[in-house]
């Protein structure tokens, strides 16, 4: 029987599709795969443009129920919302109402094809939004106005926190807070009591310019920050063990492989 590696699945929109990018010298997915090499397969199911309703419709095609000898879904990371939060425009139809978004998230993480694997589930908040930059690019692309608004997107990030808080088996990864904390710390002119960075009402992009180059998608620096908050949640199975560098391998380390016993037997 073939050795089935347990899986870490990244299920989301373009923010997960983009974790494979290495154009700036760092890849979130490569870093994560290096962390779990020989123990897990990291599977990318980032689907650019998808909202949670789209995700639910294709979920059975992505997550089959467990079968004997098949791979087990060990960790599931879910990152949707950037498209759900898009405003309804004649040129954009990605919007999902806030309450339906919350319901969709709950349905995703409780889908029987997923729960049958008994994975560790992580819900990730959509990152901050730079509406100032998005407005520039959206108008240039022919939209009548910005497709996404800072204040609306912030509500969708808060919705993820609420869903995670209602599910005791789910861990929250607050990407919004991690990135915004960095942006604020590196924007000394920002008034913490005023509008958010990236909000046209305040008119200050600040360090979001570096974290969200197009106002929506993550830069290499942002993906490093993202990875740094994910990394501690992976690897408790072998962390602190005597042979930490080899414990939990699907196929044994060469120094512990069965053929060494065969060699010893032949030599004896």
TrEMBL record:
Q: What UniProt keywords apply to this chain's record, in alphabetical order?
A: Hydrolase
Q: Could you give a GO molecular-function term held by this entry?
A: hydrolase activity
Is Protein biosynthesis given among the entry's keywords? Answer: no
User: Could you tell me which residue ranges the SGNH hydrolase-type esterase domain spans?
Assistant: 10-225
Q: Does the keyword Hydrolase apply?
A: yes
What this protein is called in its record is SGNH hydrolase-type esterase domain-containing protein
For this protein, the record's Gene3D superfamilies field holds: SGNH hydrolase (3.40.50.1110)
